[in-house]
Each structure stands twice: as C-alpha cells, then as structure tokens.
C-alpha cells in the first residue's frame, strides 16, 4: 500500500529509537475538522508501523475510565490521504460543545494511549485540540500499563485498553480459536428447529469473512420426508455441555421429527474467555423468515448452574430476521428491531426484562454494522456503530428474587451484576424457529401469513416443517457474515 505524506498542517510527533527491537512512539495531537453542518472528523497522520487507531468520544461529559463512548470506532487502515480517520455526521455541535475523548493506538505491536482529553468546538475553522486542554503523553520504550478490572483465561491480568482477542478471518482454518457446537438444542435454550453441526455448507471462511448459513436437510438426498418423520439422527462428536443424550441423537416418531434445518454455531470456549471487557463484532445479519442470528457471550463454567440460564447469557446482537413481522398486538418486531442485553431465565415474561431495543428504518441485514457490548462490574452497555442504545445497571439478584427465580439464591450477594461476574466466552451462530423468540399470533410478510406453529404445541417443529414451501422462498440471504470479532480490556 502506498502511503501519501500528510499535509504540512498535520505535524507528526514521532520518535523512533532502535534499541534491539524496541521502538518508542508518541501519539500526535488529534486533529478535529467540521466539513459539514453536523458531525466532525478526528484524525492522526499515518506513519509506518501504525496498525490501529481507536477513537472514543462523547459530548459534554467526561469519561470515568475506558468507557465505549457515544461516538467510537476502531480504524484499521489509513485513508487515501494518509490519515487514520474517524468521521461522523450525527451530532449537532454548537460552538462551545466539549468533545471528551480518549485514543488507543497500536504501533509496532504495542499499545499506546491518550487519556482524559477534551476538545472545544469552534466551527468557524478546523481546529487542532489546544495544548491547554490536553496532557502530554510520555514517550517511553515500555508502553504504560494502566490498571484494568478485566481478566481472561482463568484470571490472567492485562492492561487497560489492550486488545485481548481478535479474529479477522484471514486464515481459512477455524482452529485454534473456534470450535463447533455439535448438538440438537433443547428447551433449555429456545429448542430451535435445527441441528448444529460441523458441515462445510453451513460454516466456512471466504474472502476474509466467517459465513454461517442454515440449510434445509431435505436438500440432501439422504433426507427424504420419510426419514425426517421416522428416521434417526446420531451426531458424532456431540458437544452436549451436560452429556445429555437427547442433544446427541433423536429418533423420529409420531409428533417428533428430525430437525428439518442444519446450521452452525461456533465458540471460543477452549481458546478464549474473559471477565469484564468490551466486545465488538462487525457483521451482516441474516434475512429470511423465522431465522435469528446468535451473537452471544456464554458462561464458561456454568458456575451458578446450567438449567434456566442460571449462569446467565449476554446478547451482543439479536434480530428476528423476517423482513416483515408483526406481533399479535400490532408491534413491528422484524429485522428492523435490534435487541441486546442479558437473560437470567428462560421463563416468560421475565426472559425479556433485560433486553433493550434499537429500531432503524432499514433491515439490520441490509448492510454491515458494528455491534458492541461493554461489560463492567457495575453495568452492561449496548452499542451499534458506536451509538449506545441500552444500559443495564440493575441488581439482577434482587430482581430475580422478586420473581421467585430459585437460581438467584446461588448468586453472589456481594456482586450486583451476578451471575455476570464470572468468565464468559464468545458464541456465534444462526438459529431457526424455536419456541421462545417468535411470539404466537405473529404474522409475516406483506400478505400477513400467520406463524405456522404454536410455541406450546408438541408438534411445533412438525408444523414449521410442513410450511417450508412458504418460508423457504424468503431465504434469499439467510447467512450471517462476520467481518471481525474483537475483545478489549477496559
């Protein structure tokens, strides 16, 4: 890549000291511009060795620590003008607005920070943050290591702001970061109408992206209607977390059929888990009736128990991927509504008490978005494209006890965020159907076709399969495509 030289107004304060393999670096002052009536641009000049420019800002409110902020992005390459550039056109910025910000830069494999920064908006001209509002970053051959509450992989410590996990899917192999779940989901989850398997048509890496796509099993010549209704499925290498045989094999008979859809679900359980941190996943979500993406954090050891989400589950991003879906009460709940948050039970209505929503005018499967979750000892924040749309700051134990959830008695009384005070791992996949996420009496599509199964019916999966000629036609973009996954220490 050819890097253009920055203009003379962009002064790069850079010191390169070669002592063996050690390189020292000072982050330049961040340059602010206001090219349009709304928003701003913040940039630093490129120089050989720069690998990432992470910019985090909010308006008129200082940061307490390394929070996500309302305007944030991890920039992974310079633009054509030789700038590592963050740009937004969202906020209105009258003169006098204070932009509080912090910056993390990766240079030559090391991390550097600008912290406790602020810039005052003067829209009459492009302005570099004045020296009176910033502090000097010390140049050193050893990067600073600010304290962090984040731990990973069994309690290992790290430094604030450090990139702990990253996969940009440049390698075609899933190993060693990811393992496939191989199982039939039970009603401990959503009892979705799939089997999760390690099949090349359901999960693969292409063009530097992870693709997970559900497929109809009767597209395979070995799965005709007779086998689906009377045959047997045995999953070799089953990964049931409780060694439950019903997750590893199924005999079809009467109202029970074999899972009509095959899909994939992958996780980092054997490679990476963490407690407290910031997660970012850039992904394009699936589109099609009765599909939903799974971008989750799941408990590593199920310390508080396995049944009924006793150890919790965190949703980084979740949609009901129908292009049009209307609940029985008339509420639009299709792919234009993003949800994130946590589950502390599988029992309605408490199941959705801690899910937050963000509604857009376009389907979340139309383009890529960056889905984020910030997890601290005091709160959980939810973001999309740097915009914070949800905050959870409750006492989960108290809430659960008020609703007679027995698992709450096991949760750490000294931790208001329990059960979310243990290590969790990343889980990504695509589910279909099930008996929890799609409400009864909902209608889909322009013709308002009724949902073909009831969640309480013992033949729910069968009725779903019977309706396949209707819903399968909508599966024109059923894949979840993930560009990158990153986890940072707080």
TrEMBL record:
Protein name in UniProt: Uncharacterized protein
Protein's organism: Anopheles stephensi
Tagged with keyword Signal: yes
CDD domains, sorted: GH16_beta_GRP (cd02179)
InterPro entries noted in UniProt: Beta-glucanase-like (IPR000757), BGBP_N (IPR031756), BGBP_N_sf (IPR043030), ConA-like_dom_sf (IPR013320), GH16_GRP_C (IPR035806), Glycosyl_Hydrlase_16 (IPR050546), WW_dom (IPR001202)
One CC-aspect GO term: extracellular region
Keyword terms: Glycoprotein, Immunity, Innate immunity, Signal
GO MF term list: carbohydrate binding; hydrolase activity, hydrolyzing O-glycosyl compounds
Keyword Signal: yes
Annotated GO biological process: carbohydrate metabolic process; innate immune response; regulation of innate immune response
Source species, domain of life: Eukaryota
Family, per entry: Belongs to the insect beta-1,3-glucan binding protein family.
